[in-house]
Amino acid sequence: xxxxxxxxxxxxxxxxxxxxxxxxxxxxxxxxxxxxxxxxxxxxxxxxxxxxxxxxxxxxxxxxxxxxxxxxxxxxxxxxxxxxxxxxxxxxxxxxxxxxxxxxxxxxxxxxxxxxxxxxxxxxxxxxxxxxxxxxxxxxxxxxxxxxxxxxxxxxxxxxxxxxxxxxxxxxxxxxxxxxxxxxxxxxxxxxxxxxxxxxxxxxxxxxxxxxxxxxxxxxxxxxxxxxxxxxxxxxxxxxxxxxxxxxxxxxxxxxxxxxxxxxxxxxxxxxxxxxxxxxxxxxxxxxxxxxxxxxxxxxxxxxxxxxxxxxxxxxxxxxxxxxxxxxxxxxxxxxxxxxxxxxxxxxxxxxxxxxxxx
Length: 359
What we know:
Elements: H1 2-15, E1 18-19, H2 29-39, E2 48-52, E3 60-64, E4 69-74, H3 87-98, E5 107-111, H4 114-117, E6 121-125, H5 142-161, H6 178-193, H7 199-207, E7 219-221, E8 230-232, E9 239-242, E10 249-251, H8 253-266, H9 275-278, H10 283-294, H11 302-326, H12 337-354
């Protein structure tokens, strides 16, 4: 596990805290302060702007004032893929979920005027708490690990159980054929950003659309639900804010849940020799708990979903590699993602073979 631990520590160091705003992501801070004075209730300057480390998608900033801290999320400047970086969608879903008591940051305003800082952006609360990077939670005792994981699973089930129409999100995604549309979306993103020929990706692009599982339910799906995309209470094993809603929509909740399960089959949790002794639920226990919370009797097509999730992540990372090519990447480490695209494509094809695919 030493190599896994070192990788997790490096990722945490690269992504924790703030830095001076990158030259390519600077903007007119006085214009932002004026907009906040006019549109954010309770805002009072002076304003200091810092940029959060890490992330290759929507640049994210910490806004510091004498009485309060805020967070700003914006579209990145430069050439963008058509369906990416929809900060207005993030703002819409966070604002709607906030009315239900679901753990999200409080929102303060959305700006769709490029003339203020150069791109669309929104302002939300700065939630103070713990971001946990290493999935194996080495710093905690088994009981605490177990409680953290169970609340993470319950929070996802709560999202999937939310009546989206009741909170005004009935138009947040198209009904039906979610998996088909997702496979098509990530295929197009991969092709638009392609920098090398990967045989496994070509096979997956052919196989996945022909083997789509039937969609049984529709729910709000987060799209990137993982441990380090949530903030936990400073002392309690409780999620107090789910972050990074860029990929959220209405769709098949099993896509969300099986993405979470990837940690057990192709992530750091899979390296833990004795999950029970460590305090983490097994894959079967995780499935059973989620099913009990969402009224299911069991899950099928897991290998198909595992293949899809690895394929999708390969498409996402290829988009980052493509932005390096185009000069719009938000991270100096983005070029390293190219090797990960290949390994994910290979892992995806192995799951596809388990689901019945033939080379």
